[in-house]
């Protein structure tokens, strides 16, 4: 009898416990269920996150230029507000992904769910994985020994057709389309090999493509994927007493994994991976996700200037002894959120934006010290900047801003001239309110500096370019692009001679636009390149100017 | 009626589902329950793991010198076998933690459970956390301006009393105990500041203690914890045209976090953290846990040689411009599993064991290249090695082995001498079977080299030291330590004059042992230092010899 009672009690206990567990489970399930993602949804959301959000919010969602998107912060924001933000953007810099048509409503709702979940651990990438993606389409020995065409290939323009995954090669002399090369998704920039013969493209998905301009119809000769997320590529440009490194190496900077990858400049074979995970320069916090922003090659020694964004550290990476298993890295404490930058007129000093800090860092690449940290304006975005010799101020380097309408003119060291370097001697005001400038450009043979403003909220300013006089440092003309081409005016590049300026009309991938060529003397539209293939043109790079860092 | 039926069906459904869930939950609970750990157990096991296992198996349990201890591998081994291994060790190098009395049976069973669980994510350590542990007991300005005693402090011996968390300072002239300093748990090594005035100790728990030998009774003047797990500490030793860095910096190498921490040499204030997470030199796999093995200071330039164990990379870290926010690192591809090493006779070449690869790597610290990689024997363990000028072979650097009974004599470059460097010109055979040698030592004024063998399985060999003639390169005497002192003979150090050799008797913390001083001429026991305080003496370091890298 006692036993039966015990057994009953046990069964009752089990049932009560089971019910309690079930109810708890159900409640939990319901709470989690709201944001639960299937494997396929998780994969799709991760993919969207990588391509659309990681750039500003970081691959691990800990925040970078944009705020943290980890679940604990997301939980404090109503889902309706998250939707509004993704749909319509925010004045601080968050794009209007919904309104632009980049994300559908369903995709925005998927992303809201995704953000409520813990971020998936981002994968590593080994060299073995890189090898698996490496393709040499034309071996070096099978490539032309001299150009197979009579075109002036040093004046070729490489135009990124971003959202259709292509790069167009255009003859800068004749304006003819020479070739369209399939490069894969979302090419970020092109860089020339030191001789100019090759273009290297880097996709936001970490894919590098190498295009041979000597082929009758320029085409890709090699490709490799070296990251899941990347922004920068550069070639080795030094030839001198320490060796001949022209077209010898290519270096890629990863956003994720955070690393430098050095490739063979002739074949893209991966040679070396260097982790960039670092402690921040100031408060010495470990940043697994220390992303590589801009990389620029030195002309006077075998080295690259590499900017470690979150850590605020500039590396000078000497590649001279790479074939002996040796790399020399000088690490310079600089400023946080390093982004883009370029050489001064003498190519000894490198100036880079610490964008979220509203400062420009000047690095003396010869003495290997930080020469100055200069407050300029609201979120400087120089691209590579613009350089000129001014009759009063001497050498200048200029940057525009995302967050205000000024272009800051900074003095750089000038031989035989007493101008004190690293001063903002002038702020040029672009007409109209707000910033949104992405690029400025000049050429030593031109009397002008050109500026775009594609991220300005005003559609009229988005579609305008601004011409500045090099002497007066004032805007002398605002040019609105022709009405028939839908999209924003973005990126400026001179031809080799420095007498014309190319501007992209950045639309959507569903509609063709144009590449506009302005006469730099008359400041009038000289030629319009159109065609069904002209889809989302963004950056366009002149071979000669890119080789020689002319800007 | 229909409604009632529906409701019944729903209730039935709920009950069935609940029972099913409960049963599933119960089964799972049972499976996991077997190895489930309470929070307290997890903390205790993590602690034991850090102190006992992480050294060889890695903090993240991915394996290093020892195999992986991740759950998927552990699941393939019966628990009974795991118990045997932890209890009795393995011939490959796994110590007999149970038999030695380091771990109780309950603790071994706890560790088996722990190994079946996923490893807890090891924590980061920020500079802020380091600051929280930083204590300056005596400010620099309050320290003696000259020695407060008349002792010959350059002949002091610092003796690690490992398992009681103390360092004894002994007068090498009088053999008197001068002071006992509480340093905290498991000091691994001592290093002298460049002037010799300070001893820096590093604990396996990442705690650095700084002892001032000029005080009447030498005591700690500062301490800081800079890692959870660490093995190496070194001072800045360069004074010359590039600056005076004597006693200026201290550098610590972390096992976890994997980093270098540079401290102020006068106060131990943390100045800079540098991540050592790297890609392996050969197959370019990312190793978050790239641990810092030995660090040795250069005498001819302001740099440290830093060995990155898992990556197989040697760093030469130049600290000259540290105060300007600049660090220069030369990274040399070397060989995997770098461990301990030291300078050649000229102090230009650094030789380091790649222990699991059975090789010695020779680095030219001047030209900054790997000069040679030399196969020597089974798991070389040089400590810092032993150096001598041999009448026939010229300069030699010697290493013993954990895995065999040989001492390899390697030629190093000799001025004005044709001997080809980097050859194993002789293998000295220690008597008796097996390896187990940890340290060898010599002195320029001595005709002998001494070797210990504490890790040999033979208790007689464990308790013996071996004297080698520098000319014949043969063992001329085996000395068994006196029977009355229980423990193994470990570590050898000459006094400043080079005419006596100190040996520790390494017992357990429950019993006092002795420090034995042998006359290097007569090879007889000259003096025995005993006392209740002599507990687990291990390494003992002569100030003068440590300052000048005499070995």
Your description of this structure?
- The structure is a homodimer of 551-residue chains.
- Chain A is globular, with a radius of gyration of 26 Å.
- Chain A has 551 residues and is an alpha+beta fold.
- Chain A is 17% helix and 37% strand.
- In chain A, the strands form 10 sheets. Chain A has a 5-stranded antiparallel beta sheet with strand order 1-8-7-6-5.
- The termini of chain A are far apart.
- Among the domains of chain A are: 39-116, Cytochrome c-like domain (Cytochrome Bc1 Complex, Chain D, domain 2), CATH 1.10.760.10; 127-241 and 252-273, Methylamine Dehydrogenase, Chain H (7 Propeller); 430-551, YVTN repeat-like/Quinoprotein amine dehydrogenase (Methylamine Dehydrogenase, Chain H).
- In chain A, α2 (39-57) crosses α5 (105-116) and α4 crosses α5.
- The A-B interface holds A 14, 17-19, 21-22, 25, 124, 126-128, 257, 259, 270, 272-275, 277-279, 281, 283-286, 288, 321, 324-333, 368-370 and B 14, 17-19, 21-22, 25, 124, 126-128, 257, 259, 270, 272-275, 277-279, 281, 283-286, 288, 321, 324-333, 368-370.
Give me some keywords for this one.
Cytochrome Bc1 Complex, Chain D, domain 2, homodimer, 4-stranded antiparallel beta sheet, Methylamine Dehydrogenase, Chain H, 551 residues, alpha+beta, 37 strands, 8 helices, globular
In the sheet with the most strands of chain A, the strands line up as 1-8-7-6-5
The helix fraction of chain A, in percent, is 10-25%
Largest interface: A-B, 41 and 41 residues
Query: In one word, what is the shape of chain A?
Result: globular
Q: What share of residues are in beta strands of chain A?
A: 35-45%
- What multimeric state do the chains show? homodimer
Number of strands of chain A: 37
């Amino acid at each position: 009898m006692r036993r039966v009672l015990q057994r009953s009690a046990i069964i009752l206990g089990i049932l009560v416990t089971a019910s309690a567990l079930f109810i708890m489970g159900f409640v939990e399930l319901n709470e989690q269920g709201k944001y639960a993602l299937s494997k396929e949804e998780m994969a799709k959301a991760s993919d969207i996150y990588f391509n659309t959000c990681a750039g500003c919010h970081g691959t691990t969602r800990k925040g970078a230029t944009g705020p943290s998107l980890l679940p604990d912060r997301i939980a404090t924001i109503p889902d309706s507000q998250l939707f509004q933000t993704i749909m319509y953007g925010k004045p601080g810099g968050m794009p209007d992904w919904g309104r632009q048509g980049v994300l559908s409503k369903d995709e925005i709702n998927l992303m809201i769910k995704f953000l409520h979940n813990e971020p998936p651990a981002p994968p590593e990438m080994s060299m073995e994985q890189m090898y698996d993606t490496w393709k040499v389409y034309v071996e070096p020995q099978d490539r032309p020994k001299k150009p197979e065409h009579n075109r002036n290939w040093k004046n070729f323009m490489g135009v990124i057709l971003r959202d259709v995954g292509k790069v167009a090669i255009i003859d800068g002399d004749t304006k003819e389309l020479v070739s369209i090369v399939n490069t894969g998704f979302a090419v970020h920039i092109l860089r020339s090999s030191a001789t100019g013969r090759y273009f290297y493209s880097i996709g936001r998905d970490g894919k590098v493509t190498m295009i041979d301009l000597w082929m009758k119809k320029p085409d890709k000769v090699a490709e490799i994927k070296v990251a899941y997320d990347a922004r920068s590529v550069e070639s080795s440009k030094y030839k001198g007493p320490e060796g001949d490194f022209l077209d010898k190496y290519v270096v890629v900077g990863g956003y994720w994994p955070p690393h430098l990858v050095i490739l063979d400049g002739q074949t893209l074979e991966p040679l070396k991976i260097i982790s960039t995970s670092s402690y921040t320069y100031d408060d010495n916090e470990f940043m697994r996700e220390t992303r590589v922003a801009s990389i620029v090659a030195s002309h006077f020694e075998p080295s690259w200037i590499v900017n470690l964004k979150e850590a605020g550290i500039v590396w000078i990476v000497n590649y001279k002894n790479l074939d002996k298993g040796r790399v020399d890295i000088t690490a310079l404490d600089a400023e946080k959120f390093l982004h883009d930058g370029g050489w001064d007129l003498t190519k000894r000093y490198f100036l880079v934006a610490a964008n979220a800090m509203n400062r420009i860092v000047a690095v003396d690449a010869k003495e290997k010290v930080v020469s100055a940290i200069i407050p300029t304006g609201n979120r400087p975005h120089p691209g590579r900047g613009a350089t000129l010799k001014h009759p009063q101020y001497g050498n200048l380097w200029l940057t525009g801003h995302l967050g205000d309408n000024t272009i800051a003119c900074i003095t750089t060291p000038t031989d035989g001239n007493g101008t004190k370097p690293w001063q903002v001697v002038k702020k040029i005001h672009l007409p109209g309110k707000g910033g949104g400038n992405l690029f400025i450009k000049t050429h030593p043979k031109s009397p002008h500096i050109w500026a775009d403003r594609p991220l300005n909220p005003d559609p009229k300013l988005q579609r305008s370019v601004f011409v500045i006089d090099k002497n007066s440092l004032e805007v002398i003309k605002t040019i609105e692009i022709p009405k028939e081409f839908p999209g924003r005016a973005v990126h400026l590049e001179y031809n080799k001679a420095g007498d014309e300026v190319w501007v992209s009309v950045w639309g959507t991938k569903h509609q063709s636009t144009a590449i506009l060529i302005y006469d730099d003397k008359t400041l009038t539209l000289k030629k319009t390149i159109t065609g069904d293939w002209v889809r989302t043109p963004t950056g366009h790079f002149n071979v000669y100017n890119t080789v020689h860092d002319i800007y």
